[in-house]
Amino acid sequence: MNLSETNISNMFKNNFYINSILNKLITKFQFSSKSKDSGCGLIYTLYSDKLNLIELGYVRNNKILEEKIKNKNFILLDKKSGNYFDSFLLKKTLRLLDIQIYDDKYCDCNIKTLRHLMTLGWPIGNSLYKKRIIRKKISYVYT
Fold first, then answer.
1. What is the tally of structural domains in the chain?
2. What is d(CA 122, CA 124) in angstroms, rounded to the nearest whole number?
3. What range does the domain containing 111 cover?
4. 38, 80, 89, 139: which sits with the fewest CB atoms below 10 Å from its CB?
């Protein structure tokens, strides 16, 4: 075997490994999909400037989300329709990408996390507030 054949062989092994992990996660979720949180609802992102954390979550309806925002000092960045499985898969994927998740819903707000969330299609919004935070963090890197 030459060098290119070994690279292709390793690529197929890695691809097989990733597919087997995803299949295990989907199978595990199918057994628990009859829970009350598996229906359609809202997936959301909240941000706390004081703690520099983002909260990623799922709620059944908009009223529950409004109550969460009132009870906490978090700002809603964005929300969209989704289900519990979307939230479950996102958190598992972020853990595979070496992003620390606290209490199964909080992450540090940094450029790496926001970039991964945007790539994965999670609602992070285009608010001026979020852009200000990103500009502030980038300016710290350059100075």
1. 2
2. 6
3. 36-142
4. 139
